[in-house]
């Protein structure tokens, strides 16, 4: 699976209320061979990768540049996921975008495992 990002520009960080968020200043699109297309229109804001503070020294800071596009598209895919399979596709795209961003294999694997485990928990909880 090799998603492609149509715009290689970095996404700026800005202050929104009392938290730092990213603000997409351009339309972004990621494609992958499974014919999944994720779009992020201009003006979308999100708070970066969800990494617990106690993991920052090991994984990295949530606002780290390498995580920005991957976290943007992952958040968007999770918002739209209605099944565990759709969530799994979003998680796989997240992992590959981290690879494309140059995140080392053990870090991206740890991040992918975290979103997979949480995604399964969340989707099962939603089904109850």
List the helices and strands and how they pair.
Blueprint: E1 4-5, E2 13-16, E3 19-23, E4 28-31, E5 37-40, E6 45-46, H1 68-80, H2 84-100, H3 105-127
Nutshell version of this structure?
Helix content is 41%, strand content 16%.
Structure explained in plain terms:
The protein has 128 residues and is an alpha+beta fold. Helix content is 41%, strand content 16%. The chain has helices spanning 68-80, 84-100, 105-127, and strands at residues 4-5, 13-16, 19-23, 28-31, 37-40, 45-46. The strands form two sheets. It has a three-stranded antiparallel beta sheet with strand order 1-4-5, with helices on one face. A hairpin with a 2-residue loop joins strand 2 and strand 3. Helix 2 (84-100) runs antiparallel to helix 3 (105-127). It is globular, with a radius of gyration of 14 Å. The chain starts with a strand and ends with a helix. Mean pLDDT is 75; it is low at 1-9.
